[in-house]
Amino acid sequence: MDASFFDRPIERRGTASFKWDLYGEDELPLWVADMDFASPPPVVEALEDRARHGVFGYALTTCSLVEAIAAHFEQRYGWRVEEDWIVWLPSVVPGLNLACEAFAGPGEAVMTVTPVYPPFLAAPANRGRRLITVPAEQRDGRWQLPLDGMEEAVTPDTRALLFCHPHNPLGRVWRRDEVEAALDFCRRHDLVLVSDEIHCDLILDDLAHVPAALAGPGDADRIVTLSSPSKTFNLPGLNFAFAIVADQELRRRFVHPGKGLLPFPGCFAVAAAEAAYREGGAWHAGLLDYLRGNRDTLEAFVAGLPRVRMAHVEATYLAWLDVRDLELEDPAAACRSAGVALSAGAAFGDPAYLRLNFGCPRATLEEALRRLEPALR
Ligand SMILES: Cc1ncc(COP(=O)(O)O)c(C=O)c1O
Fold this sequence. Notes:
Elements: H1 3-7, E1 28-29, H2 41-53, H3 63-77, E2 86-89, H4 92-103, E3 109-114, H5 118-126, E4 130-135, E5 137-139, E6 142-144, H6 147-153, E7 158-164, H7 176-188, E8 192-196, H8 212-215, E9 223-227, E10 241-244, H9 248-255, H10 267-279, H11 281-303, E11 309-310, E12 318-322, H12 331-337, E13 340-341, E14 343-344, E15 353-357, H13 362-376
Helix pairs in contact: 2-10, 3-10, 4-5, 11-13
């Protein structure tokens, strides 16, 4: 799939879009994490076929869907996922919440590294658990896991580590030794590692994603992986995700709090997910090339701003901009006044930052940067 596919502007206002329809005609929304690109054509065709059928009964998660998922993980990561390890979820966020309830008791603690995708911060409290946050460290302009801080902050009643891998919003692809260090930490403190790998197919550099489950083959009884095709193929509005839990007892504990609450995947989600995993490869390769170009455009823009910094984005289509030196009272409001809606860093755990979503046509990104320049200079 070449760049012209991703260059094509698609009007999203008026489609009940969370990203676009919350804002006015004169604002460009570069905030919530969906992309402004059409999904792979085979996905659109699968959905059209399904819609044309006209009967929208309960869906079966077919063997063929499971095979498509397993083939994806095996081909890309060398990870052999078995059918009974999969737990269907309506989206990844309920998986984070289930994990908090399943693995920590009332009032016990769950740890995460900040800044992080806001539902990581909300999930423990949602379920009556305590949140322990440890700020990531930056060394030589590169974000690092705060292993010493994690050792200092962990308590005897900490039960799980919510691990964002790759990391939103830091854009880091955790290397094998870092994943092993996180696992070693979990082993020593008897924590469950809940590894949210929803961004794992969005690696922009020549780097390998190492699934936590492969980094710790002997730790199946403490690893829950959360995944979905929704970021990779831009399908978040279809509500489809899954957990991969190899250990039967851990799986039993994980699903228990959701019994009777979680819907089975819908028929459109099933059709789209299978088409995406089976036939989305060329689109996905084109997407990564395109996102790399957007990332480079953004990094060059920020390098020209004297008072804004960002670390190199290795993965995701999200950038984490350090705007503290601008000394703005409300950086997100200043950007909105300039006509661009970004995510306020406070929601992720650090008000000195803004998160910018560059999953859009290059012309949209360039227009947003043109508008932002005076506000960020
Ligand atoms: C790390 C991470 N997990 C989960 C999600 C959301 O997943 P879902 O829409 O499947 O709940 C996002 C969305 O941005 C994310 O960045």
